[in-house]
């Protein structure tokens, strides 16, 4: 299957003239010879730009490559703008597989009896069809109540197809890394490995179910921000690795701007809430939906003056640890204040760039990139592009790739793009700055100390009765350690004195032995006495 698929991919690449992407001087001699032969497949799309041909080739290779192209479109730090823009046009709509097959997959997963008693009105024609799975509508009898649901079903045999395609991608990545002039900067092997992890995670719908449940819980806690995002309910008792059952939602696609305007939705509020959704997920929860493209985001416009975002498809999520979260927040605030030295120092302190990095040079590089941006009106500044520029600059100083930051960058670009599409005058900086400043104060001020004490009170309360025993044990151990140290010091002192005596006796015995040897030929008796004395002293040194 791998060789057959490889042949198909090579054929597609040649028919779209993608061999032209490799500079001629880097091509091996046998490739150059092959290109001049009659059997070499010629470019059938010479009238189209290279970026367009690349996108069309990816699109024609099917679901796995389409998904890869979508992910690649977010890596603007790796691709030229024309290629990134073309790949962003890839749609996540592919031909569906047979509805009866989907129904049988569901029955095999949840059991025929459960299917017959709990699920009705199953629609064989899918509501939507994507790269890895498709979605069917149905009705679920749950706790005596009928509820409208959607059932997400993985494509049959998709896992074997994905593994085969990834192997081929890895092969081409090695070729690009070796022969393409920009191979090192593009890091094709790392990109394919990143894609491998992402897409294999998406093959486990139980993981997606758990992510959805967690995200819903995070936005169901009664906070002012919690009503700005709705996540459909997941029915985990009916879900399996290849089948996901969840609540059906009704909303307007966030990309359907004209429809939203026709419903008199407050577009400015909707755009600002998108920004709040992002920063709340990242900095409050450290758990963010990392695939918020237009196909996964809808709007509940029931109350146009109070619109709510709806997020589906939680297959890809990002997380940040406390250190990354704090450094990011401080980075953003420093950027708002144009404190480039602090930005540079934070990158060093966080370990994102080597400790040996010259902070002054790093600051100058960041200033060079960012000052021209800040000369524009705030409304014209792309927050996402600033982040991309920062990462690109840091990479010149050997910044290690941080997977969590790549997902963050991708998500921010999505959110900002959606926000500006909804409300072009959106000032993301102005919207985000108060949120970030308040968050930093909460994390580093009196509130942070109080919260930490409050969070640790149950633990301290549990350990409080043990404290007297722990103190006694500590003091007892300290006393015993002190006594043991004193004994050890006495022993060491005695051993030192004995060593000194052995050395002195050995020196005296050695001197007598040498003198005995010297006197042996002239004064035999004296020599004998000296030899006897040497033997006595050397024997005493050995006894000690």
From TrEMBL:
InterPro entries found in the cross-reference section: ABC1_dom (IPR004147), Kinase-like_dom_sf (IPR011009), UbiB (IPR010232), UbiB_bact (IPR045308), UbiB_kinase (IPR050154)
Active-site residues, record numbering mapped to chain: 291 (proton acceptor)
Lineage top rank: taxon: Bacteria
EC nos: 2.7.-.-
Segments passing through the bilayer: 505-538
Main location group: membrane
Domain ABC1 atypical kinase-like: 90-346
UniProtKB keywords: ATP-binding, Cell inner membrane, Cell membrane, Kinase, Membrane, Nucleotide-binding, Transferase, Transmembrane, Transmembrane helix, Ubiquinone biosynthesis
Enzyme class name: transferase
Pathway: Cofactor biosynthesis; ubiquinone biosynthesis [regulation]
Subcellular location: Cell membrane
HAMAP family, sorted: UbiB (MF_00414)
Classification via PANTHER family: CHAPERONE-ACTIVITY OF BC1 COMPLEX CABC1 -RELATED (PTHR10566), PROTEIN ACTIVITY OF BC1 COMPLEX KINASE 7, CHLOROPLASTIC (PTHR10566:SF113)
Protein family per UniProt: Belongs to the ABC1 family. UbiB subfamily. Belongs to the protein kinase superfamily. ADCK protein kinase family.
Protein name (Swiss-Prot/TrEMBL): Probable protein kinase UbiB
Organism: Thalassotalea eurytherma
């Amino acid at each position: 299957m791998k060789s057959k698929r490889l042949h198909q991919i090579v054929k597609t690449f040649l028919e779209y003239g993608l061999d032209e992407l490799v500079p001629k001087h880097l091509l091996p001699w046998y490739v150059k010879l092959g290109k001049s032969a009659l059997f070499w497949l010629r470019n059938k799309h010479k009238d189209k730009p290279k970026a367009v041909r690349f996108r069309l080739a990816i699109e024609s290779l099917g679901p796995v490559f389409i998904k890869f192209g979508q992910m690649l479109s977010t890596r603007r730090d790796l691709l030229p703008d024309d290629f990134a823009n073309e790949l962003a046009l890839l749609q996540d709509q592919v031909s569906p597989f047979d509805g009866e097959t989907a129904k049988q997959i569901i029955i095999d997963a949840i059991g025929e009896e459960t299917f017959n008693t709990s699920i009705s009105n199953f629609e064989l024609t899918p509501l939507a069809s994507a790269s890895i799975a498709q979605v069917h509508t149905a009705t679920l009898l749950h706790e005596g109540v009928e509820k409208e649901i959607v059932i997400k079903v993985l494509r049959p045999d998709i896992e074997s197809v994905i593994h085969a395609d990834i192997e081929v991608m890895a092969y081409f990545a090695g070729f690009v890394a070796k022969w393409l002039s920009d191979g090192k900067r593009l890091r094709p092997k790392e990109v394919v490995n990143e894609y491998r992890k992402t897409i294999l995670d998406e093959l486990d719908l139980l993981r997606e179910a758990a992510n959805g449940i967690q995200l819903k819980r995070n936005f169901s806690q009664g906070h002012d921000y919690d009503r700005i995002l709705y996540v459909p309910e997941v029915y985990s008792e009916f879900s399996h690795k290849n089948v996901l059952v969840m609540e059906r939602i009704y909303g307007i696609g966030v990309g359907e701007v004209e429809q939203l305007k026709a419903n008199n939705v407050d577009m400015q509020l909707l755009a600002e809430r998108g920004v709040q959704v992002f920063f709340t997920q990242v900095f409050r929860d450290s758990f963010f939906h990392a695939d918020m493209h237009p196909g996964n985001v809808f709007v509940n416009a029931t109350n146009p003056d109070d619109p709510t975002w709806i997020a589906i498809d939680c297959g890809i999520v990002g997380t940040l640890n406390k250190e990354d979260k704090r450094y990011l927040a401080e980075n953003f605030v420093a950027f708002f204040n144009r404190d480039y030295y602090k930005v540079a120092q934070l990158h060093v302190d966080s370990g994102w760039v080597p400790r040996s990095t010259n902070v002054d040079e790093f600051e100058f590089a960041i200033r060079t990139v960012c000052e021209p941006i800040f000369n524009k009106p705030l409304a014209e500044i792309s927050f996402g592009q600033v982040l991309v520029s920062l990462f690109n600059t840091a990479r010149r100083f050997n910044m290690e790739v941080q997977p969590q930051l790549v997902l963050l960058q991708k998500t921010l670009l999505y959110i900002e793009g959606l926000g500006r599409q909804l409300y072009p005058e959106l000032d993301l900086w102005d919207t985000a700055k108060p949120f970030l400043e308040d968050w930093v104060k909460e994390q580093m001020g009196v509130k942070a100390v109080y919260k930490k004490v409050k969070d640790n009170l149950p633990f301290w309360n549990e350990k409080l009765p043990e404290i007297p025993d722990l103190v006694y044990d500590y003091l007892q151990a300290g006393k015993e350690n002190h006594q043991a140290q004193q004994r050890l010091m006495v022993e060491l002192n005695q051993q030192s004195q004995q060593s000194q005596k052995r050395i002195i006796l050995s020196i005296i015995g050695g001197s007598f032995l040498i003198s005995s040897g010297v006197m042996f030929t002239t004064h035999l008796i004296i020599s004998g006495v000296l030899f006897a004395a040497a033997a006595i002293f050397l024997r005493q040194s050995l006894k000690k």
